[in-house]
Amino acid sequence: MPPAITMSDESSVEVAVPKAGAVVGAATDPHLADENPFEEMMARFDAAAELLDLDPGIYQVLRHPERQIIISVPIQRDDGAVEVFTGYRVVHNTARGPGKGGIRFDLMVTLDEVKALAAWMTWKCAVVNIPFGGAKGGVVCDPPNLSDTELERVTRRYTATLINTIGPESDIPAPDVNTNERVMAWIMDTYAMHKRSASQGVVTGKPIELGGSLGRREATGRGCMIVTREALKHLGLPLRGSKVAVQGFGNVGSIAAKLMEQEGMTVVAVSDASGAIYNPHGVYIDDAIQYCRDHRFLRGYPMGEEISNQELMALDVDVLVPAAVENTITRRNAGDIKAKIICEGANGPTTAKADRILNDKGVFIIPDILANAGGVTVSYFEWVQNRSGYFWDEETVVERLGANLVKAFGDVLDVAQRHSVSMRTAAYMLSVERVAAVHRIRGMYA
Ligand code: GLU
After folding, report:
1. What rounded mean pLDDT belongs to the chain?
2. Cα–Cα distance between 360 and 128 in angstroms, integer?
3. pLDDT tens for each residue of 26-64
4. Is residue 72 part of a domain?
5. How many CB atoms neighbour CB 403 within 10 A?
6. Which active-site residues does the annotation give?
7. Which residues approach ligand 1 with their CB closer than 6 A?
8. DSSP conformation letters of 368-381
């Protein structure tokens, strides 16, 4: 049976990456169980709050998500049996605008993870200065074991149960791990049926025919390429011929690899959960994507040497792009990393302990909330187009995305240089201060 749905962050390239976490993530490594994603996020937030000397009241507000919803999602399986899944939607903060963030379908989804991801969305939207707050959702399920019709029922039931939470002015979902344009279409349709209005702006990452934006599918990977280009420029390193290794070959990793290749970089290794492929002369990315479409996984791809995911992480490259799941760079493998630049395509790939090791080694990390913000930036463009009813051509989307990310990179670099802190701490300082400023202006409603 073909995969019911592709596995990857915002999967829309038909590339299956099953259970990336099962191979390289902390979820299956009991020794890393202390690296709870919410605490990991909070450790970074706390560091920024201290440096900013954040008002204790605002600190308390930002430490607590505005809303945490746990729902049951009962559906009838194709064989008639009833199964009840657990779903979450967390809205972390809406000071700057409606909650914004994806929905993931995965067996590893937990409330703590969704809370962390929701807060990351708040900081991400603030770093790139778009008028959204942060939210995230998830359903604990195993998409490869659900048929298309079962997935549709899960999606519609989840949406219907959250009908009074989501909305174009309140909380706007988008694709994330294991969800794609088709899932977004079901969300929009369910919302439209309940509300009796064809409200396109309720969800982003939709099919183009339904009000999706040109360039949205490639936006996260394109953003990775843009900020990597800026980082190379800043470090005085050449773009052409610089070596890249990309971990994760879903929508983010495969598109980032392809666009970096187009820029003249040499992508010497790519990987998915089945393993990694190394070719010192460069993996031909279109060919590898096609191989994945045909075979579901990279394993067995003949145009390179098979290596492990951990070997990929330790390659002597200029740029490493972790684009799979959380906690793939930990205190166990951070010491082996030789890359000069890490571009965090995934959310939360580097643990706080690994961060310290990498900072000591002088690795230039482009943090997730900047590196993968291209996706939500074009989600914002999509929402703007939906609200105005006027659609932009792809060139306009690409140009505005580039301008926005180059500006955000410069803003973060400026804070990093002025305060002598890492790019991550700078990104948090910039975003926490932007959110705090709005809280100060709005005041406390009680
Ligand atoms: N899931 C993506 C992210 O983590 C996109 C979110 C969005 O477009 O709202 O940034």
Report:
1. 92
2. 27
3. 333 433 445 788 888 888 999 999 999 999 999 999 999
4. yes
5. 11
6. 136
7. 10, 100-102, 124, 174, 176, 204, 347, 372, 375-376, 379
8. HHHHTTHHHHHHHH
